[in-house]
Write a structure and sequence with these properties.
Layout: E1 2-3, E2 6-7, E3 14-17, E4 20-23, H1 35-42, E5 55-61, E6 64-70
Antiparallel strand pairs: 1-2, 1-5, 3-4, 5-6
Length: about 70
């Protein structure tokens, strides 16, 4: 389990409850951009530097290593 490329430890950073992963801190997702933000990006005035975290789960299926990227729910 990796959060933004950093390995997470079960019981310390997250818990597994059934099929769900419960993180011990809130995960940030970039929200929708408004029209003024889009316009400023289009004109090259500003970019988007909001926090957007990703969760990568590494597991084995039939002896092959597989990675699934998950999106945190609000």
């Amino acid at each position: 389990m990796y959060l933004n490329g950093v390995r997470q430890q079960p019981g310390r950073d997250f818990d597994r409850v059934g099929r769900e992963l419960i993180f011990r801190r809130a995960l940030a997702q970039e929200g929708r951009l408004g029209p003024i933000r889009w316009l400023s990006m289009l004109l090259g005035i500003a970019g988007t530097y909001r926090k957007h975290e990703t969760v990568d789960v590494v597991y084995d299926v039939g002896g092959r290593r597989t990675v699934a990227t998950l999106t945190p729910e609000s």
